[in-house]
Amino acid sequence: MKFKDIIGGISRSESVKDVYISLFSILLALIIGAFLIFLIGSSPLQAFTVMFDGAFGSVSNIANTLTKTIPLIFTGLAVAVAFRCGLFNIGAEGQLYLGAFFSVLTALKFSFLPAFILLPVAILGGIISGMIWGGIPGFLKAQFGTHEVVVTVMMNYIGINITSYLVNYPFKAEGWVAQTDIIPTAAILPKLIPKTQLSAGLIVAVIAALAVYFLLWKTDIGYEIRAVGENPTTAESGGINIKKNISLAMAISGGLAALAGVTQSLGVYERFIDGFSPGYGFTGIAVAVLGRNHPLGVILTALLFGALETGALKMDRVTEISNDLVIVIQGLVILFVAAPEIIRSILKRRESQ
């Protein structure tokens, strides 16, 4: 049996179990959340009903939920691609900031382009900036063995502060808010539902997820990336270039993270605003973990997190329950998903001693 077939068999057998683990983790977290609501003297049924209505109770609410889901899909995919290559990209936050800024800058500087060209060029400008920023830690890891976690954490601060400087000084629009000028109409992502913030970024996100699935499971490049993640030694013995795939995986990851910022700037704000992200890059780590690093799992998890966030806003207004409860539920979900892996790791270490 070929090594490629072995990896395929493992992924198929593991995927079913992974789905059950994720679903059980979500259910257990909701049960504990309901218990906490009961302890503070409120009705869990009322709280979850209000939360559901806030997320899906109207067309406007659904649009808001999907709007919050879009950047989480991109950052979740970014982290998932890196994970599949055995890498941990914690730099999605910095990458999405650079993607957002340079997509806007591209739109402003090339505003003379025809309408049907300007939008793709602006999106491409953001993607390229993210790929470069994500590719740097990949290159350092491949060539010098520098740990990608340390590098991506530091590059988060560098990327965020670079864009902050640029939007506060050379590219600041008139007024007291640190933001750029509004981009040309031709560079704005079309709205899917009028009078809402839901843009065609949702379509881009779904296409990106399908592209990631096709890349990882239907191409030789994806096979090599996954092989490196499964067992670098065996992959290298099979003639796979480890350094090339590490650099490539991190560059792809950075480009996907950049799209989170691109779709926000071109689809929601129609400009770059300093500090616009509430932490999409870091939440993307949780989305990838719960989604088991699979594109479909990432989409569903991003939707769950988007619904929790949107629903929590109404729950906070209507009931006496703080929307901080959602953060607790998200944390519990991640804990329950990660716990089996942690326990297995501890047992393996004890056995090896």
TrEMBL record:
<dbReference type="Pfam" id="PF02653">
    <property type="entry name" value="BPD_transp_2"/>
</dbReference>
<feature type="transmembrane region" description="Helical">
    <location>
        <begin position="148"/>
        <end position="167"/>
    </location>
</feature>
<feature type="transmembrane region" description="Helical">
    <location>
        <begin position="20"/>
        <end position="39"/>
    </location>
</feature>
<dbReference type="GO" id="GO:0005886">
    <property type="term" value="C:plasma membrane"/>
</dbReference>
<dbReference type="GO" id="GO:0022857">
    <property type="term" value="F:transmembrane transporter activity"/>
</dbReference>
<dbReference type="InterPro" id="IPR001851">
    <property type="entry name" value="ABC_transp_permease"/>
</dbReference>
<protein>
    <submittedName>
        <fullName>Nucleoside ABC transporter membrane protein</fullName>
    </submittedName>
</protein>
<keyword id="KW-1003">Cell membrane</keyword>
<feature type="transmembrane region" description="Helical">
    <location>
        <begin position="246"/>
        <end position="266"/>
    </location>
</feature>
<feature type="transmembrane region" description="Helical">
    <location>
        <begin position="198"/>
        <end position="216"/>
    </location>
</feature>
<feature type="transmembrane region" description="Helical">
    <location>
        <begin position="70"/>
        <end position="92"/>
    </location>
</feature>
<feature type="transmembrane region" description="Helical">
    <location>
        <begin position="296"/>
        <end position="313"/>
    </location>
</feature>
<keyword id="KW-1133">Transmembrane helix</keyword>
<feature type="transmembrane region" description="Helical">
    <location>
        <begin position="325"/>
        <end position="343"/>
    </location>
</feature>
<keyword id="KW-0812">Transmembrane</keyword>
<keyword id="KW-0472">Membrane</keyword>
<feature type="transmembrane region" description="Helical">
    <location>
        <begin position="112"/>
        <end position="136"/>
    </location>
</feature>
